[in-house]
Amino acid sequence: MKILALDTSTMMATCAVLDENQVLGEFSLNQSETHSENLVPMVKEVLDNLHLRVEDIDIYAVATGPGSFTGLRIGVATVKAFAHIYKKPVIGISTLEALAYNLPYNKTVVPMIDARRDRVYTGIYTWEDGTTKTLMEPTVLDISLLLEILEKDYEEVLVNGNGSILHGDTIKNRLKDKVKFSTMGNNFCRAISVGELALNKYKNGDVDNFYTIVPEYLRESQAQRDLRKKEQI
Amino acid sequence: MLTLAIETSCDETSAAVIRDGREVLSNIISSQIEIHRKFGGVVPEVASRKHIENINQIVQEALDSANVTFKDIDLIGVTQGPGLVGALLIGISTAKALAYGLELPIVGVNHIEGHVCANYIDHKDLEPPFTCLIVSGGHTYLVQVNGYTDYEIVGRTRDDAAGEAFDKVARALGLPYPGGPVIDKLSQSGNKAAVDFPRVMLEPNSYDFSFSGLKTAVLNYLNQLKQKGEEIIVEDVAASFQQSVLDVLVEKSFRLAKERGMDKIVLAGGVAANQGLRTMMEERGKKEGIKIFYPSRVLCTDNAAMIGSAAYFNYMAGKLSDLYLNVEPNLDLI
Ligand SMILES: [Zn+2]
After folding, report:
1. Which value does ipTM take for this structure?
2. Which domains does chain A have, with CATH numbers?
3. How many A from CA of B218 to the centre of ligand 1?
4. Sheet of B291-293, strands arranged across
5. How far is it, in rounded angstroms, from Cα B175 to Cα B158?
6. What is the pLDDT of residues A138-190, one digit of tens each?
7. How many Cβ pairs within 8 Å bridge chains A and B?
């Protein structure tokens, strides 16, 4: 059984092929915010080198967000189309959970993805029974509010993601010795983690389909928010 | 040769299956117009979200109603631009994955060229060369079409597109979005000579257009009436405004056709559905011995069939894309 996994939630575009036992290949490019040009050629590069074709893939996995709205849609649309051709299952994985999955750590893991204007997409995770366990569901928070929560309620905290790099000084100043930062290689959502989490979900029969899967934006569009405000007045 | 085409440049999610660039086997169009109406216009983020929800369903419907499967398809065509970047990305991402997965050639299509090609679908014998007037919410071009993929832009708008002027005037008249069809309908019962709005012809030999002055004139006229407390006869304003736009469009189209010795004028784009424009063109065409072509109403709107037609003709001309194909939100006709 072969899984093709993709993530384009952030500046990093990443794709991997794995089976039940091992990683067969991974290709990541931290190059631009518009992944539309490179994503399919990246997939082709990986598959060609593995002497595989799209029809050899059994399951598609994709990070559904949160992250850049446009980036998410490029990844999700690409995976939906691949899956559509041979009517294969698609499995959506939270980008934050995949980030946390990079760090099998039995204290608190807090992935952060930049959501602009001093906010981060974040969740709180720990490691239990060989996988991530969610302590706080994905949400979008002011960095100061997140740090307040972490300072009050948690002992040791391990952080990763581009938000933890962007707000590194603030986090360090606030959490002091309580916080540890991730290594470079675990700071981005690995397609490998997306794929492995998807495999676990697949085993539990938790499968999405290519017609209905959509990104998890976590936020309404600006126009929708404005309209709602206007209607409330 | 069967082309599967995808169009997501604005607020229509569409997929079509086309044989040899002219025969429509299916043309599925899912309009988001009701969703955007409450915002008073197309909201790009809302459009993108809707496209990704719909796209695979629409592609499947296009295959089903053409009674084919992916295996029968020979070519993938997709709108590359111009349009809303986030919306275009859904179509491009889908099309590229399909092209790679199915190991098929792919053509990124210019949306404006697609509007021209809509005519090849409805008029099986239509062949270039001809003079073409392309008018829509986003574009106003006067073009000399010398071959299926050979365009010469002779005139264009220097400010607002014609369709944009319709939308703005409609809003000022308190009419719903989109403004074009409503103004066209009201015009039929209005007096087109009621108000003498300007016809902006620009320099005597110019084929360019300008509609912002006309738009301002209509807004000023409405303000004056309001200040004087006089009644606004919406039908008359609509008819007079529309006539001002059409006079300029028709005059310049015929001038170009005659200058180039063309016996065909082809209309393309959303405004080609305007009944006033069609009638006026045909009446003038009868007098001048010039035949007028325009697409059926459904093919005047944004649709994937026209993109499939353009993809086919580009493929035949050897103009192929590759898997690095990307969106071009500001793409010009040439
Ligand atoms: Zn259009």
Report:
1. 0.96
2. 3-95+189-232 (3.30.420.40), 103-186 (3.30.420.40)
3. 25
4. B150-156, B140-147, B130-135, B264-268, B291-293
5. 26
6. 999 999 999 999 999 999 999 999 999 999 999 999 999 999 999 999 999 99
7. 102
